[in-house]
């Protein structure tokens, strides 16, 4: 019962009023920073380290460290959520994990249900966060044994599953989806080969050695694609102003999204435990899973 | 999308596939005595891409020519103007700095989309470019090539 004692200690210090205030401020700043495209949770936390140092400076060293960590954790969670805002409203993912949000959220915003989409994404990330916290406390020991045994063969199967799920997301043309999947894999070969260290397609340009950043491609494809599509089709002349509308989702929205959120929490927890590098494949797989069930019902 | 676009796209992807196969032959075949070297993956993917684009071309040829509806004529002039401006913006970003570059780019973009209203465009682009710079560099202490080094503004 050591774990529970430590947990109680943690709660005792986290529930002090000034620490709750710091958590609130952190989430507030984090959401604001996460909304900026390109600044995800990691770079948000890195950017805000000096701010946390000044804010918690008034306390003794130990309390200041605790408060600073709480503040940064708030920033992390806030930025995670903030990334989904631009995905829903502008079809531009703020960071790589919210790419999937653009696919469904932006469609909802186009139908005038942007408020509901924002709320569902907030509820979903809250539920999943709480669930994975609880599950982590309970299952950290046994799961770490599995994680150690998760070898190359398992990673390979997982990535293959993720890629197969991507082509399942294809709209009308399976061929086009496969072409884009292969194209993405080809772009990923640019840079240093992971296995042998041989530079591929770099043409002696040192910037290319580290490969292309996933976020750069995602923002470029989604944001620039959206802008150019609007210009070419003259949508800015006829389009209506999208309104955020009512923020609280209707009872039906909640009922419809409860299942996917629950499934996403459980699947997401296991993906994150077992396969850090397969993160994005995991997200796509979840969405695919959700779509299938949507079609059945 | 329409058939013409799909046909051109399939040819472009075919060429990209050929390019990747061609270029992957220049990568050393094996670095440590194994048969599977760093060139296998891009070459295989290039071949798959070639096969897929041939299939897309074939599909487009077989498909019935859909009746092109009353879509408005695509606005290629504005698209090319904005695309060119974006490329120039990215290319000269380090030379002229973020604030001036963004200001000029936004002003150009606003005027391309809708002529006139010079005062509004000027104010919005000035406030936006300097506001983002201020937030990112002064408040968050990030690093961004703000002004050109020869202006000596910091």
From TrEMBL, chain B:
Taking every annotated instance into account, which residue ranges of this chain make up the domain DUF1468?
A: 9-145
Keyword Transmembrane listed: yes
Transmembrane region positions?
A: 40-58, 79-112, 118-137
**Pfam families reported in the protein's UniProt record:** TctB
Instruction: Provide this UniProt record's keywords sorted from A to Z.
Output: Membrane, Transmembrane, Transmembrane helix
Among InterPro entries, the record links this protein to: DUF1468
Protein's name in the database: Transporter
Lineage, uppermost ranks: Bacteria, Bacillati, Bacillota, Bacilli, Bacillales
